Amino acid sequence: MKTEEASYRDKKVMSIGIVKELTGLSERQIRYYEKRQLLFPERTSTGIRKYSFSDVERLMDIADKIEEGVQTKEIRHELARREEKNRNKTNEIRNRMLQGQLNAHFHSRNY
């Protein structure tokens, strides 16, 4: 069920107008955060930006940090560290699962 939640949260389906309403940010602010590489919306074939629920959460987090006086450069570095940590955690889980599958496969062959 967690994977279904993640996929729905990460689907880029909302227009900038909806994101603006959900976050209380202006289109200018949202585009600025994209320009500063804090956010990565998808573009339709006609160039319309599409955002996900994860993007909305990220924007809310960014807005809070900006309000606290954190610079966009610092936020970008923090987001990069967080993403690297998540990648490492995912790889560690994947490796443990593979090791478990290998152990189960070879253990079952011995009986």
UniProtKB/TrEMBL annotation:
PROSITE patterns: HTH_MERR_2. Residues 83-95 have a biased composition (Basic and acidic residues). Residues 83-111 are annotated as: Disordered. This is DNA-binding transcriptional regulator, MerR family. The keyword Repressor applies. The keyword Disulfide bond does not apply. One of its GO terms (molecular function) is DNA binding. It holds the Pfam family MerR_1. Gene3D superfamilies: 1.10.1660.10. Keywords: DNA-binding, Repressor, Transcription, Transcription regulation. InterPro entries: DNA-bd_dom_put_sf, MerR-type_HTH_dom, MerR_fam. Residues 13-81 form the HTH merR-type domain.
